[in-house]
Specification:
heterodimer; A: about 290 residues; mainly alpha; MetI-like fold; 11 helices; about 75% helix; about 0% strand; B: about 400 residues; alpha/beta; D-Maltodextrin-Binding Protein, domain 2; ten-stranded mixed β-sheet; about 40% helix
Chain lengths: ~290, ~400
């Protein structure tokens, strides 16, 4: 008996090996190097090189200098995630329950934007929201926007871009968990005199929670770290933390600051995710 | 090896395996970085004389060039300057237009050049400030003066005597351009200065500036009365404050690379800081787009040919430089690429090639235009980190 256990165990390890090696090479080592870089002597440069100085001050310095961008990134990410959840839930619900034979076609349409590049898709929003474009003109005609008003280079455009770009990551997990729900359960709630609203909140929504949790995580994490949407649709007043990290790395070559910011962002997101998943695991989330 | 192990050791060995994998990963990592345990990074400064490769030009008739897109005449056309060079010299040129961004290119070669390794390129073309940085890092081979006589003879005056390479030991300008102001004459009256761009309420939210620090800050320093070629830290702080005010008031819409051309054409902006070459292109579609020389002056920049350390075909690269500093060749190239031609005498040679371009001020700027150009002072490594960091905090990076 112990022989079979051991063999099963060994097969298990063998199956784990490729993923472990992959993670070891492409996650553990870069992460270790990032941590080390974040503690380098801040007086270093490419000319002089960098020496490990355990400079924890790098952290307080970047947090002090860039907390507005950190907060803004979390807020923009959260708003975009909420918008994605509302839009995505309705869409996924329609695909799972109402689409009938159009189901597969609609799923393909959700994924279709991935066939063009992220940059092209974001740039096309620039055309849609242009100052002389029909969206702005219509809003101005309806007096929702002042005569001098605009959408580009405002938080509206940035959040719209984030919402658009990350919507499929929300829809797919939502669809997967909604599609699995047994219709008989929803019918049963009706038999027990629950009206459709009560039925939805007592049956459908709780059963779709795994999709909600994974969808919001898949949307929030990349959205909070994004820098392309601000670059193309925003202005310096909408700067997010991803933009700071990018410019510190590539333009200023201030590697310790950039690395410290990356670690801070990572830590904040891990903390948020842990708390969120914990709460989502119980009824507290509701 | 596991045979003799006690039953029940499976849990242990799983942990052991995880540890083993971790150790293996660290092992790989330390092999890759060589410096354990904290990946200390040695300085990247090198002595070009120590990082010199043997020149194989005599036996290998080859030359590998990395340049920016749109900077050469058609390579397939038998009469183009490119084809004639290959025919005359018998050198086969491997020409790549793979440089899109100075900082990006720097990042892609930093590890090799910083540790005295070759990058398998014989010539790279980089903008002044990046050329200056690479020269001061010791990553660039000195040119052999007597192999490039045309360069010494024919480089136009305003490009001579750069602070970072006054004797032309390391660099040769490939093409140059001007930075100034562009505006849409169908929407607003003439924009005369950067002060106007920063303060005029009529343009609020409809002005963009360039995201290249030296382009924009050169003008900001001028606006606050400082000299971009020699400024103090206080003057820098003043200039940056001036800009910060215009950004937070919403006067400046954004900081852009080449994409300001779309915004100007689409009517999202009415005026902007602009590169002369782009404006020529825009004018074909919209004659209302104008380029002006601001009251603060113009910034004249160049993209420069450099031979990196470890290049194995330096003599061939020098032949290329000398060939393109022949006025007739330069004129032929200028007729195609429409940038400012850095070669003296090319204007006269242009008579024979395309008389309509002889008086084009954006290819052959007159002395009056060139007399108001200014230069940005070279920054040392610490200034670079500080100023670029502060700049991106204002410009949004």
């Amino acid at each position: 008996m112990s022989e079979t256990v051991r063999r099963r165990g060994r097969v298990g390890y063998l199956l784990l090996l490729p993923a472990l090696l992959w993670l070891g090479v492409f996650f553990v080592i870069p992460f270790y190097s990032l941590m080390a870089t974040s503690l380098y002597d801040p007086g270093g440069s490419d000319f002089r090189g960098y020496r490990m100085a355990w400079a924890w001050g790098n952290y307080s310095e970047v947090v002090h200098a860039y907390w507005p961008e950190l907060v803004r990134s979390l807020v923009y990410g959260a708003v975009a995630t909420l918008l994605c959840l509302v839009l995505g839930y309705v869409l996924a619900y329609a695909i799972a329950f109402k689409a009938g034979r159009w189901k597969n076609l609609m799923l393909v349409l959700v994924v279709a934007p991935f066939f063009t590049s992220f940059l092209i898709r974001t740039l096309s929003w620039k055309l849609i929201l242009a100052d002389d474009g029909f969206v702005v003109n219509t809003l101005q005609a309806a007096h929702l926007l002042g005569a001098d008003g605009r959408l580009l280079a405002t938080p509206v455009a940035v959040i719209a871009g984030l919402t658009y770009n990350f919507l499929p990551y929300m829809v797919l997990p939502l669809y997967a968990s909604l599609d699995k729900i047994d219709h008989l359960l929803i019918e049963a709630s009706g038999d027990l005199y629950a009206n459709p609203f009560v039925g939805f909140f007592k049956v459908t929504w709780p059963l779709s929670l795994p999709g909600v949790v994974s969808g919001t995580l898949l949307t929030f994490i990349p959205a909070a770290g994004d820098f392309i949407n601000v670059k193309l649709l925003g202005s310096p007043n909408q700067r997010m933390i991803g933009n700071v990290i990018e410019s510190q790395f590539t333009d200023a070559n201030n590697y310790p600051a950039a690395a410290a910011l990356s670690v801070v962002l990572m830590a904040i997101i891990v903390a948020i995710v842990l708390v969120y998943v914990r709460r989502a695991g119980t009824e507290e989330l509701l | 090896m596991v045979r003799g192990r006690l039953p029940g050791a499976a849990g242990l060995s799983r942990r052991g395996l995880l540890k083993g994998a971790g150790a293996a990963a660290f092992g790989l990592g330390s092999l890759a970085a060589l410096d354990l345990p904290f990946f200390d990074v040695p300085g990247a400064q090198q002595n070009p004389l120590d990082c010199r490769a043997r020149d194989l030009s005599a036996s290998q008739k080859e030359l590998v060039i990395s340049n920016w897109p749109g900077y050469i005449d058609p390579m397939k056309k038998p009469t183009s300057t490119f084809s004639v060079f290959q025919d005359q010299t018998g050198i086969r040129v491997d020409y790549n237009d793979d440089i899109n961004d100075n900082s990006e290119f720097y990042g892609s070669v930093k590890n090799q050049l910083g540790s005295c390794q070759a990058i398998e390129i014989d010539m790279m073309v980089l903008t002044d400030w990046m050329a200056a940085r690479m020269i001061s890092l010791g990553w660039v081979q000195p040119l052999t003066a007597d192999r490039v006589p045309n360069l010494r003879q024919n480089l136009i005056k305003p490009l001579q005597g750069k602070q970072w390479d006054p004797q032309l030991q390391y660099h040769a300008p490939w093409q140059s351009g001007l930075t100034g102001i562009a505006y849409n004459a169908s929407k607003i009256g003439e924009v005369k200065s950067f002060t106007d761009l920063l303060d005029n309420p009529d343009y609020k939210g409809r002005v963009t500036l360039l995201s290249e620090m030296r382009d924009t800050m050169g003008f900001m320093l001028k606006v606050v009365g400082a000299d971009p070629s020699n400024f103090t830290e206080d003057e820098w702080a003043n200039a940056l404050d001036r800009l910060r005010g215009a950004v937070s008031s919403g006067q400046i819409r954004s900081f852009t690379g080449n994409n300001y051309t779309q915004d100007l054409a689409a009517g999202n902006i009415v005026a902007c800081e602009a590169w002369s070459g782009d404006v020529i292109q825009l004018q074909f579609a919209n004659p209302n787009i104008k380029f002006v020389t601001p009251e603060e002056g113009l910034s004249l920049w160049s993209d420069n040919m450099l031979v990196p350390n470890g290049a194995t075909h330096q003599a061939n690269a020098e032949k290329w430089i000398d060939y393109y500093y022949d006025p007739e060749v330069a004129a032929k190239l200028a007729a195609w690429v429409n940038y400012i031609c850095p070669v003296e005498g090319a204007q006269q040679a242009m008579e024979k090639i395309d008389p309509s371009l002889v008086d084009n001020a954006l290819i052959f700027p007159d002395d009056e235009t060139l007399s108001v150009t200014f230069d940005f002072m070279p920054l040392d490594d610490r200034q670079q980190i500080q100023y670029e960091g502060e700049w991106s905090d204002v410009s949004g990076g």
